[in-house]
């Protein structure tokens, strides 16, 4: 039996695990760099080569279990993929007291999972770390395009955006007022994490587009934008969100295959595991 990060089988069963991991190797609508369909495979491979002790929290998050909840392979259309992710997420959310996590795939995979999580939890904040606003109502004839990843979330929930540094002028009308933290402002402001935390509360879904990070540390994404988030401040933000709020789900997307994919794959693996460490620590 293949397990997450090669952890023991007894830590990887549905019954035992406090974390469920769904993978969606979808790359149907990306416009520039292709290869996000290889994201889950690269992430799982990197995870197997990672130390399972977390120094910062002095914990071994895998002891709480991680269940591989399968993958969604529907790719006949962006809408069909979104519906399939929605149905699968809904099915998994029936298991109480388990953290739902998803690894993509391009960012459109989040539309269906946010929809399902939003139906289950009231007062949902969607915290988006991303270089791009992803607020187009539709793009290339589809509302399930990666450029539309959080349009619906913004209509229904409390959307908070962090690290944004690229958008179309038309999207400005949709940017959540006072809840978009631009990368150029983050770069200059020392206490930006406090500002973000003021806007995040209650039940939280965290969606992380890896292009939120600076391409110097995460180069293998579809559209690497200069001036991105750094590693430690991002972890600090996430740690404090887990401490303050009830994080009910998170996803990580846009890991792209390329000859230089390894450092980004490892960053994604480590990021995922750090988030598990913060989650379990916040619950104990
Ligand atoms: Mn995105």
From TrEMBL:
Keyword terms of this UniProt record: Hydrolase, Manganese, Metal-binding
UniProt-listed PROSITE patterns: ARGINASE_1, ARGINASE_2
Residues binding Mn(2+): 107, 130, 132, 134, 209, 211
Pfam families hit by this protein: Arginase
Molecular function terms from GO: agmatinase activity; metal ion binding
Keyword Cell inner membrane: no
Cofactor note: Binds 2 manganese ions per subunit.
TM ranges: none
Domain of life: Bacteria
Entry cofactors: Mn(2+)
Coiled-coil residue spans: none
Protein name, as recorded: Agmatinase
């Amino acid at each position: 039996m293949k397990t997450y990060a090669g952890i023991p089988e007894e830590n990887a069963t549905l019954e035992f695990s406090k974390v469920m991991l769904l993978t969606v190797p979808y790359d149907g609508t990306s416009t520039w760099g292709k290869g996000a369909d290889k994201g889950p495979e690269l992430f799982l491979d990197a995870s197997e080569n990672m130390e399972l002790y977390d120094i910062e929290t002095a914990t071994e998050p895998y002891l709480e279990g991680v269940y591989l909840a399968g993958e969604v392979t529907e790719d006949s259309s962006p809408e069909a993929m979104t519906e399939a992710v929605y149905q699968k997420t809904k099915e998994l959310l029936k298991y109480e007291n388990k953290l739902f996590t998803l690894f993509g795939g391009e960012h459109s995979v989040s539309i269906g999972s946010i929809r399902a999580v939003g139906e289950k939890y009231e007062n949902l904040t969607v915290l988006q770390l991303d270089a791009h606003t992803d607020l187009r109502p539709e793009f290339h004839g589809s509302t399930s395009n990666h450029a539309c990843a959080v349009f619906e979330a913004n209509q229904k929930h409390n959307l908070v955006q962090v690290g944004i540094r690229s958008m179309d002028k038309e999207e400005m009308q949709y940017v959540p007022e006072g809840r978009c933290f631009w990368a150029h402002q983050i770069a200059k402001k020392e206490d930006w994490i406090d500002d973000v935390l003021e806007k995040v509360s209650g039940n939280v879904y965290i969606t992380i587009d890896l292009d939120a990070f600076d391409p110097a540390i995460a180069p293998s994404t579809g559209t690497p934008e200069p001036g991105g988030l750094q590693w430690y401040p991002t972890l600090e933000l996430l740690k404090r969100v887990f401490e303050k709020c009830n994080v009910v789900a998170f996803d990580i997307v846009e890991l792209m295959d390329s000859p230089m994919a390894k450092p980004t794959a490892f960053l994604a693996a480590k990021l995922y595991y750090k988030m598990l460490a913060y989650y379990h620590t916040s619950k104990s």
